[in-house]
Design goal:
single chain, 2 domains, two-stranded antiparallel ribbon, alpha/beta, 12 helices, 17% strand
């Protein structure tokens, strides 16, 4: 079988999987009733940020449960990358709506994230502080499998933090990563041709070695963001800055270790975090409303196939991102 046939087979397989997933989802919703099916179609058509469902029945007032899952990065709404999970703008919208609703008296964020972009993590942190100040509602974080680096950063805005004893958390640090393809390019006969307006315009160019000045520039960016991280932890955990610095060498901690070090408040499960939120909100037997994230926009993805610049699985987008400096709060 020649290369063209292999490529055709691969593309066909991807399309078949996407079609199967989307068909299964629609059938599941159809089987649950016409109203739910119409709601699903409306959600896809209008790109709604979320749907809601009852997570836990209760006779008391309402708490909101919002999930922060995956790498905290800004995804282009028109991206053809079907592998992306976390939706930054949808998550921000969920926070805004949950805080602004008069019938919701407290919020729980379930964090399961290795972290992500410095900008996006800081945006969430500041948004939570802003909303808490405006609406005077308690916010509790429950850390599930992982709440590391940027996932830990955003948790610093919480009134109380619960973690499972096996949660991986901490990883207080910053990283900029690049690659160097120079020797590989030489072997296959690829040359870099770059026209630039200044000496540092192609900082971290993977087609050539870094010089000392470029290393100093990159390190200064890391140090600046690291300082912000340390300050946020010191404020959020009411700790001395020097104490935070002793813990902030980039390592991850288990939930049990984090509890002993003062990086989280309590060990427990999600239900215990919900009960703790109810106590802070002075609620007995709360009803918990789960905000569900939007699924992949299958219709937009299929429409993008018609475009000449169709990018299978977002490979072109990922390559472009790799060529630009990215400062990350992310577990290595």
């Amino acid at each position: 079988m020649n290369k063209k046939r292999w490529w055709a087979l691969a593309i066909f397989t991807v399309l078949l999987v996407v079609w199967a997933v989307s068909s299964t989802k629609v059938k599941q919703i159809e089987s649950s009733g016409t109203s739910n099916y119409l709601a699903y179609l409306n959600r896809i058509e209008n790109k709604q940020a979320f749907t809601t469902q009852i997570y836990r029945e209760g006779k008391g007032k309402i708490l909101a449960l919002i999930k922060l899952e995956g790498e905290i990065t800004e995804n282009n709404a028109n991206s053809t990358n079907v592998s992306s999970g976390y939706n930054h703008q949808a998550f921000i919208k969920q926070l805004e709506v949950a805080f602004s609703r008069n019938d919701i008296k407290g919020i729980i964020i379930q964090v399961n994230s290795p972290g992500g972009g410095v900008y996006e993590s800081d945006e969430i942190y500041n948004k939570i502080l802003e909303l808490k100040a405006q609406y005077k509602k308690p916010l509790v974080v429950y850390m599930s499998q992982e709440a590391a680096s940027g996932g830990y950063y955003v948790s610093m805005a919480a009134d109380k933090i619960y973690a499972n004893r096996n949660t991986l958390t901490g990883s207080i640090g910053v990283i900029i990563r690049t690659y160097n393809y120079e020797q590989l390019a030489d072997k296959i006969g690829v040359k870099d041709v770059t026209f630039k307006s200044g000496a540092q315009k192609d900082l971290l160019n993977p087609m050539r070695p870094l010089n000392d000045q470029e290393k100093a520039i990159a390190q200064s960016l890391v140090n600046e963001s690291y300082g912000y991280f340390v300050d946020v932890v010191a404020k959020g955990r009411n700790m001395d800055r020097n104490q935070v610095l002793q813990l902030a060498d980039g390592r991850v901690y288990s939930g049990a270790q984090a509890k002993d070090l003062g990086l989280v408040d309590e060990l427990g499960n999600l239900d215990q975090a919900i009960n703790g939120t109810a106590q802070l909100a002075n609620i007995i037997d709360p009803q918990v409303l789960l905000y569900e994230n939007p699924g992949p926009d299958i219709l937009s993805w299929f429409n993008s196939i018609k475009a000449p610049s169709f990018d299978l699985l977002g490979m072109k987008q990922q390559m472009n991102q790799a060529l630009s400096p990215q400062i990350m709060y992310i577990a290595n």
